[in-house]
Amino acid sequence: MENEGMLDKLKQIYRAMVVTDLDGTLLCSDRLVSKRNMEVLRELGKMGVMRIAATGRNLYSAKKVLAENFPVDFLVFSSGAGIARWTPFKILKSYFLEKRDVIRIASFFLERGLDFMIHEEIPDNHIFYYFSTGRENPDFWNRIEIYGEFANPISKEEIVNFSKRATEVVGIGATPGDYRLISERLSPYSVIRATSPLDLKTIWVEVFPKEVNKATGAEYLRRMYRIPVEKVMAVGNDYNDLALLDWAHMSFIVGNAPYELKERYITVETNDNDGFSSAVELWLRTVG
Question: Which residues of 10-43 are buried (b: 16+ CB within 10 A; e: fewer)?
Answer without folding.
Answer: eeeebebbbbbbbbbbbbbeeeebbeebeebbee
